[in-house]
Design brief:
Layout: H1 3-10, H2 16-35, H3 37-64, H4 68-106, H5 108-119, H6 121-131, H7 136-152, H8 154-166, H9 168-179, H10 182-224, H11 229-239, H12 246-261, H13 266-291, H14 299-333, H15 339-345, H16 352-360
Helix pairs in contact: 3-4, 3-8, 3-10, 3-14, 4-7, 4-8, 4-11, 5-6, 9-10, 10-11, 10-13, 10-14, 11-12, 12-13, 14-15
Length: about 350
Protein backbone atom coordinates (compact mmCIF):
# COMPACT_ATOMS: atom_id res chain seq x y z
CA UNK A 1 0.00 0.00 0.00
CA UNK A 2 1.45 3.39 -1.04
CA UNK A 3 1.67 6.40 1.34
CA UNK A 4 -1.04 8.18 -0.65
CA UNK A 5 -3.37 5.22 -0.20
CA UNK A 6 -2.66 5.18 3.54
CA UNK A 7 -3.54 8.88 3.76
CA UNK A 8 -6.81 8.19 1.99
CA UNK A 9 -7.69 5.34 4.31
CA UNK A 10 -6.99 7.25 7.50
CA UNK A 11 -8.49 10.56 6.39
CA UNK A 12 -11.65 11.24 8.42
CA UNK A 13 -14.88 11.40 6.48
CA UNK A 14 -17.80 13.65 7.11
CA UNK A 15 -20.43 11.50 8.73
CA UNK A 16 -24.09 11.79 7.93
CA UNK A 17 -24.89 11.92 11.63
CA UNK A 18 -22.70 15.02 12.05
CA UNK A 19 -24.49 16.78 9.20
CA UNK A 20 -27.84 15.76 10.64
CA UNK A 21 -27.01 17.00 14.13
CA UNK A 22 -25.63 20.27 12.75
CA UNK A 23 -28.80 20.91 10.75
CA UNK A 24 -30.99 20.11 13.75
CA UNK A 25 -29.02 22.45 16.02
CA UNK A 26 -29.03 25.25 13.43
CA UNK A 27 -32.78 24.85 12.93
CA UNK A 28 -33.43 24.96 16.67
CA UNK A 29 -31.28 28.09 17.02
CA UNK A 30 -33.17 29.88 14.24
CA UNK A 31 -36.53 28.85 15.70
CA UNK A 32 -35.38 29.98 19.14
CA UNK A 33 -34.32 33.37 17.78
CA UNK A 34 -37.65 33.79 16.04
CA UNK A 35 -39.81 32.57 18.92
CA UNK A 36 -37.86 34.48 21.57
CA UNK A 37 -37.69 37.75 19.65
CA UNK A 38 -39.74 39.66 22.24
CA UNK A 39 -37.21 38.74 24.92
CA UNK A 40 -33.99 38.72 22.89
CA UNK A 41 -34.39 41.99 20.97
CA UNK A 42 -34.43 44.26 24.07
CA UNK A 43 -31.52 42.27 25.49
CA UNK A 44 -29.51 42.65 22.28
CA UNK A 45 -30.32 46.36 22.18
CA UNK A 46 -29.24 46.71 25.80
CA UNK A 47 -25.92 44.97 25.11
CA UNK A 48 -25.30 47.27 22.13
CA UNK A 49 -26.19 50.37 24.17
CA UNK A 50 -23.93 49.10 26.94
CA UNK A 51 -21.03 48.82 24.50
CA UNK A 52 -21.63 52.40 23.35
CA UNK A 53 -21.73 53.63 26.96
CA UNK A 54 -18.46 51.86 27.77
CA UNK A 55 -16.80 53.34 24.69
CA UNK A 56 -17.99 56.83 25.63
CA UNK A 57 -16.99 56.50 29.29
CA UNK A 58 -13.54 55.19 28.35
CA UNK A 59 -13.08 58.17 26.04
CA UNK A 60 -14.13 60.56 28.83
CA UNK A 61 -11.59 58.97 31.19
CA UNK A 62 -8.85 59.21 28.56
CA UNK A 63 -9.55 62.87 27.78
CA UNK A 64 -10.42 64.30 31.20
CA UNK A 65 -8.83 61.87 33.67
CA UNK A 66 -12.17 61.83 35.48
CA UNK A 67 -13.03 59.05 37.94
CA UNK A 68 -14.41 55.90 36.35
CA UNK A 69 -17.73 56.14 38.16
CA UNK A 70 -18.25 59.72 37.01
CA UNK A 71 -17.40 58.79 33.42
CA UNK A 72 -19.87 55.90 33.60
CA UNK A 73 -22.61 58.20 34.87
CA UNK A 74 -21.88 60.67 32.08
CA UNK A 75 -21.91 57.91 29.48
CA UNK A 76 -25.18 56.45 30.72
CA UNK A 77 -26.83 59.89 30.85
CA UNK A 78 -25.74 60.96 27.37
CA UNK A 79 -26.49 57.68 25.59
CA UNK A 80 -29.85 56.97 27.24
CA UNK A 81 -30.97 60.59 26.82
CA UNK A 82 -30.04 60.49 23.14
CA UNK A 83 -31.78 57.15 22.65
CA UNK A 84 -34.89 58.43 24.41
CA UNK A 85 -35.00 61.55 22.24
CA UNK A 86 -34.72 59.48 19.06
CA UNK A 87 -37.54 57.18 20.13
CA UNK A 88 -39.65 60.09 21.36
CA UNK A 89 -39.40 62.00 18.08
CA UNK A 90 -40.35 58.95 16.05
CA UNK A 91 -43.05 57.81 18.44
CA UNK A 92 -44.66 61.23 18.87
CA UNK A 93 -44.92 61.89 15.14
CA UNK A 94 -45.81 58.34 14.11
CA UNK A 95 -49.57 58.73 14.56
CA UNK A 96 -49.69 62.15 12.96
CA UNK A 97 -47.76 60.99 9.91
CA UNK A 98 -49.82 57.81 9.57
CA UNK A 99 -53.01 59.92 9.54
CA UNK A 100 -51.71 62.30 6.89
CA UNK A 101 -50.33 59.60 4.61
CA UNK A 102 -53.71 59.36 2.83
CA UNK A 103 -53.35 63.02 1.84
CA UNK A 104 -50.03 62.26 0.19
CA UNK A 105 -51.56 59.31 -1.62
CA UNK A 106 -54.27 61.57 -3.07
CA UNK A 107 -51.64 64.03 -4.31
CA UNK A 108 -49.51 61.31 -5.83
CA UNK A 109 -51.06 61.51 -9.31
CA UNK A 110 -50.18 65.19 -9.57
CA UNK A 111 -46.64 64.44 -8.50
CA UNK A 112 -46.29 61.77 -11.19
CA UNK A 113 -47.40 64.28 -13.81
CA UNK A 114 -44.61 66.63 -12.73
CA UNK A 115 -42.10 63.84 -13.23
CA UNK A 116 -43.30 63.24 -16.79
CA UNK A 117 -41.53 66.27 -18.20
CA UNK A 118 -38.29 65.27 -16.49
CA UNK A 119 -37.92 61.57 -17.24
CA UNK A 120 -40.37 60.90 -20.06
CA UNK A 121 -43.62 58.98 -20.43
CA UNK A 122 -42.12 55.48 -20.34
CA UNK A 123 -40.45 55.95 -16.97
CA UNK A 124 -43.53 57.74 -15.65
CA UNK A 125 -45.74 54.82 -16.67
CA UNK A 126 -43.40 52.44 -14.85
CA UNK A 127 -43.48 54.63 -11.72
CA UNK A 128 -47.25 54.87 -11.81
CA UNK A 129 -47.79 51.13 -12.32
CA UNK A 130 -45.38 50.09 -9.55
CA UNK A 131 -45.64 52.78 -6.89
CA UNK A 132 -49.38 53.23 -6.96
CA UNK A 133 -49.78 49.60 -5.90
CA UNK A 134 -47.65 50.20 -2.80
CA UNK A 135 -49.66 50.68 0.38
CA UNK A 136 -47.81 53.69 1.77
CA UNK A 137 -49.82 53.67 4.99
CA UNK A 138 -48.67 50.11 5.64
CA UNK A 139 -45.05 51.07 4.98
CA UNK A 140 -45.36 54.03 7.34
CA UNK A 141 -46.89 51.86 10.05
CA UNK A 142 -44.12 49.28 9.72
CA UNK A 143 -41.28 51.82 9.88
CA UNK A 144 -42.68 54.09 12.56
CA UNK A 145 -44.46 51.29 14.43
CA UNK A 146 -41.10 49.65 15.12
CA UNK A 147 -39.87 52.89 16.67
CA UNK A 148 -43.03 53.19 18.78
CA UNK A 149 -42.66 49.60 19.97
CA UNK A 150 -39.05 50.29 20.86
CA UNK A 151 -40.14 53.37 22.80
CA UNK A 152 -42.43 51.17 24.86
CA UNK A 153 -39.48 48.90 25.64
CA UNK A 154 -37.15 51.78 26.48
CA UNK A 155 -37.45 51.34 30.24
CA UNK A 156 -36.76 47.61 29.98
CA UNK A 157 -33.63 48.35 27.93
CA UNK A 158 -32.59 50.99 30.47
CA UNK A 159 -33.03 48.46 33.27
CA UNK A 160 -30.85 45.93 31.47
CA UNK A 161 -28.20 48.59 30.86
CA UNK A 162 -28.17 49.63 34.52
CA UNK A 163 -27.49 46.09 35.72
CA UNK A 164 -24.91 45.47 32.98
CA UNK A 165 -23.00 48.59 34.02
CA UNK A 166 -23.26 47.64 37.71
CA UNK A 167 -21.71 44.23 37.02
CA UNK A 168 -19.09 45.44 34.55
CA UNK A 169 -16.10 45.03 36.89
CA UNK A 170 -17.36 41.94 38.70
CA UNK A 171 -18.04 40.09 35.46
CA UNK A 172 -14.40 39.26 34.76
CA UNK A 173 -13.93 37.81 38.23
CA UNK A 174 -16.99 35.62 37.71
CA UNK A 175 -15.53 34.40 34.41
CA UNK A 176 -12.35 33.26 36.14
CA UNK A 177 -14.31 31.50 38.86
CA UNK A 178 -16.71 29.86 36.41
CA UNK A 179 -13.99 28.65 34.04
CA UNK A 180 -11.96 26.98 36.74
CA UNK A 181 -9.08 26.52 34.31
CA UNK A 182 -6.91 29.68 34.04
CA UNK A 183 -6.15 28.93 30.37
CA UNK A 184 -9.83 28.66 29.50
CA UNK A 185 -10.59 31.81 31.47
CA UNK A 186 -7.84 33.72 29.63
CA UNK A 187 -9.10 32.49 26.25
CA UNK A 188 -12.67 33.48 27.05
CA UNK A 189 -11.54 36.90 28.30
CA UNK A 190 -9.55 37.41 25.09
CA UNK A 191 -12.60 36.57 23.01
CA UNK A 192 -14.78 39.00 25.00
CA UNK A 193 -12.14 41.73 24.65
CA UNK A 194 -12.04 41.21 20.87
CA UNK A 195 -15.83 41.41 20.68
CA UNK A 196 -15.90 44.52 22.88
CA UNK A 197 -13.20 46.32 20.88
CA UNK A 198 -14.82 45.53 17.52
CA UNK A 199 -18.29 46.54 18.69
CA UNK A 200 -17.06 49.71 20.37
CA UNK A 201 -15.28 50.78 17.23
CA UNK A 202 -18.22 49.93 14.99
CA UNK A 203 -20.92 51.49 17.18
CA UNK A 204 -18.84 54.57 17.95
CA UNK A 205 -17.85 55.26 14.35
CA UNK A 206 -21.30 54.51 12.92
CA UNK A 207 -22.93 56.74 15.54
CA UNK A 208 -20.63 59.64 14.66
CA UNK A 209 -21.05 59.15 10.91
CA UNK A 210 -24.83 58.77 11.20
CA UNK A 211 -25.00 61.91 13.35
CA UNK A 212 -23.05 63.90 10.74
CA UNK A 213 -25.26 62.58 7.94
CA UNK A 214 -28.48 63.28 9.84
CA UNK A 215 -27.37 66.81 10.75
CA UNK A 216 -26.56 67.69 7.14
CA UNK A 217 -29.79 66.11 5.91
CA UNK A 218 -31.84 67.93 8.56
CA UNK A 219 -30.33 71.23 7.44
CA UNK A 220 -31.40 70.47 3.87
CA UNK A 221 -34.90 69.41 4.94
CA UNK A 222 -35.46 72.51 7.08
CA UNK A 223 -34.15 74.87 4.42
CA UNK A 224 -36.63 73.36 1.94
CA UNK A 225 -39.52 73.49 4.44
CA UNK A 226 -40.11 69.74 4.25
CA UNK A 227 -42.82 68.45 6.57
CA UNK A 228 -41.74 66.14 9.40
CA UNK A 229 -38.12 67.20 8.93
CA UNK A 230 -37.24 65.97 12.42
CA UNK A 231 -38.67 62.54 11.68
CA UNK A 232 -36.74 62.18 8.42
CA UNK A 233 -33.54 63.35 10.10
CA UNK A 234 -33.94 60.78 12.91
CA UNK A 235 -34.73 58.07 10.36
CA UNK A 236 -31.64 59.08 8.41
CA UNK A 237 -29.58 58.66 11.56
CA UNK A 238 -31.10 55.25 12.33
CA UNK A 239 -31.18 53.90 8.77
CA UNK A 240 -27.46 54.54 8.32
CA UNK A 241 -26.88 51.60 10.67
CA UNK A 242 -28.50 49.32 8.07
CA UNK A 243 -25.78 48.31 5.58
CA UNK A 244 -26.13 48.97 1.85
CA UNK A 245 -29.86 49.70 1.57
CA UNK A 246 -30.26 51.92 4.64
CA UNK A 247 -28.86 55.04 2.97
CA UNK A 248 -31.06 54.48 -0.09
CA UNK A 249 -34.21 54.27 2.04
CA UNK A 250 -33.09 57.35 4.01
CA UNK A 251 -33.14 59.38 0.77
CA UNK A 252 -36.15 57.71 -0.86
CA UNK A 253 -38.86 58.57 1.67
CA UNK A 254 -38.15 62.29 2.18
CA UNK A 255 -37.70 62.63 -1.60
CA UNK A 256 -41.13 61.10 -2.21
CA UNK A 257 -42.70 63.39 0.41
CA UNK A 258 -41.03 66.42 -1.23
CA UNK A 259 -42.33 65.30 -4.63
CA UNK A 260 -45.88 65.24 -3.29
CA UNK A 261 -45.72 68.24 -0.95
CA UNK A 262 -44.25 70.88 -3.26
CA UNK A 263 -45.64 72.20 -6.53
CA UNK A 264 -42.25 72.13 -8.25
CA UNK A 265 -39.82 69.28 -8.70
CA UNK A 266 -36.79 71.29 -7.49
CA UNK A 267 -37.01 70.21 -3.79
CA UNK A 268 -37.23 66.59 -4.96
CA UNK A 269 -34.07 67.00 -7.03
CA UNK A 270 -32.28 68.79 -4.18
CA UNK A 271 -32.96 65.89 -1.81
CA UNK A 272 -32.15 63.17 -4.35
CA UNK A 273 -29.00 64.79 -5.69
CA UNK A 274 -27.86 66.65 -2.56
CA UNK A 275 -28.63 64.12 0.18
CA UNK A 276 -27.93 61.23 -2.18
CA UNK A 277 -24.47 62.62 -2.93
CA UNK A 278 -23.80 63.11 0.78
CA UNK A 279 -24.83 59.52 1.50
CA UNK A 280 -22.64 58.26 -1.35
CA UNK A 281 -19.56 60.22 -0.28
CA UNK A 282 -19.89 59.33 3.39
CA UNK A 283 -20.73 55.68 2.71
CA UNK A 284 -17.92 55.13 0.21
CA UNK A 285 -15.12 57.34 1.58
CA UNK A 286 -15.63 58.55 5.17
CA UNK A 287 -17.16 55.33 6.50
CA UNK A 288 -14.43 52.98 5.14
CA UNK A 289 -11.69 55.43 6.14
CA UNK A 290 -12.86 55.58 9.77
CA UNK A 291 -13.82 51.93 10.15
CA UNK A 292 -10.94 50.67 8.06
CA UNK A 293 -10.70 46.90 7.93
CA UNK A 294 -11.36 46.40 11.62
CA UNK A 295 -14.57 44.49 11.02
CA UNK A 296 -12.98 42.34 8.30
CA UNK A 297 -16.33 41.02 7.08
CA UNK A 298 -17.04 39.72 3.60
CA UNK A 299 -19.30 42.01 1.56
CA UNK A 300 -21.46 39.04 0.63
CA UNK A 301 -21.68 38.12 4.31
CA UNK A 302 -22.95 41.62 5.14
CA UNK A 303 -25.82 41.27 2.65
CA UNK A 304 -26.51 37.70 3.76
CA UNK A 305 -26.56 38.74 7.44
CA UNK A 306 -28.87 41.66 6.63
CA UNK A 307 -31.31 39.31 4.91
CA UNK A 308 -31.18 36.69 7.67
CA UNK A 309 -31.58 38.99 10.68
CA UNK A 310 -34.31 41.02 8.94
CA UNK A 311 -36.22 37.80 8.28
CA UNK A 312 -35.84 36.63 11.88
CA UNK A 313 -36.22 39.90 13.83
CA UNK A 314 -37.74 42.31 11.32
CA UNK A 315 -36.59 45.92 11.05
CA UNK A 316 -34.70 45.81 14.37
CA UNK A 317 -32.80 42.80 13.05
CA UNK A 318 -31.63 44.91 10.12
CA UNK A 319 -30.13 47.44 12.54
CA UNK A 320 -28.43 44.72 14.56
CA UNK A 321 -27.29 42.56 11.63
CA UNK A 322 -23.67 43.76 11.46
CA UNK A 323 -22.96 43.82 15.25
CA UNK A 324 -24.48 40.38 15.75
CA UNK A 325 -22.56 38.92 12.81
CA UNK A 326 -19.33 40.47 14.09
CA UNK A 327 -19.86 38.69 17.41
CA UNK A 328 -20.50 35.38 15.64
CA UNK A 329 -17.38 35.77 13.50
CA UNK A 330 -15.17 36.48 16.53
CA UNK A 331 -16.64 33.56 18.50
CA UNK A 332 -16.06 31.21 15.57
CA UNK A 333 -12.46 32.44 15.22
CA UNK A 334 -11.74 31.36 18.81
CA UNK A 335 -13.21 27.86 18.40
CA UNK A 336 -10.74 25.58 16.54
CA UNK A 337 -13.47 23.46 14.93
CA UNK A 338 -15.29 26.57 13.61
CA UNK A 339 -12.21 28.61 12.66
CA UNK A 340 -12.44 27.61 8.95
CA UNK A 341 -15.98 28.99 8.92
CA UNK A 342 -14.69 32.26 10.38
CA UNK A 343 -12.04 32.41 7.65
CA UNK A 344 -14.76 32.06 5.00
CA UNK A 345 -16.81 34.78 6.71
CA UNK A 346 -13.88 37.21 6.79
CA UNK A 347 -13.00 39.68 4.06
CA UNK A 348 -9.42 38.62 3.31
CA UNK A 349 -9.12 35.31 5.13
CA UNK A 350 -7.17 36.85 8.03
CA UNK A 351 -8.63 36.83 11.48
CA UNK A 352 -7.87 39.12 14.40
CA UNK A 353 -4.79 37.28 15.61
CA UNK A 354 -3.47 36.95 12.07
CA UNK A 355 -3.77 40.70 11.49
CA UNK A 356 -2.01 41.41 14.79
CA UNK A 357 0.88 39.11 13.92
CA UNK A 358 1.17 40.63 10.45
CA UNK A 359 1.24 44.13 11.89
CA UNK A 360 3.88 43.14 14.44
CA UNK A 361 6.10 41.59 11.81
Amino acid sequence: MTPDQKDITVRPRLRLSVVRDTCIIATLIVLGLYAGANFLIPLAMALLVNVLIIALSDRVVALTRAPVWLANVAGVTVVLAGLFMIMYVLGSQATQFARSISTYENQFDGAVERVTGLVGNDVTTFIRDNLVSIDMSYVARVLLGSATSLLNQFFLISLYVAFLMAERLAFRKKIQLAAGNPVAAAEFSTMLDAISVSLQRYVGVKTLISLITATISYTVFRSLGLEYAETWAVLTFALNFIPSIGSIIAVFFPAMIALVQFETIIPFLVIVLGCGTIQFLIGNFLDPAMLGRSLNMSTFLVILALTFWTTVWGLIGAFLSVPLTVCILIVFSHIPALRPVAVLMSLDGRLGEDNSQAAAS
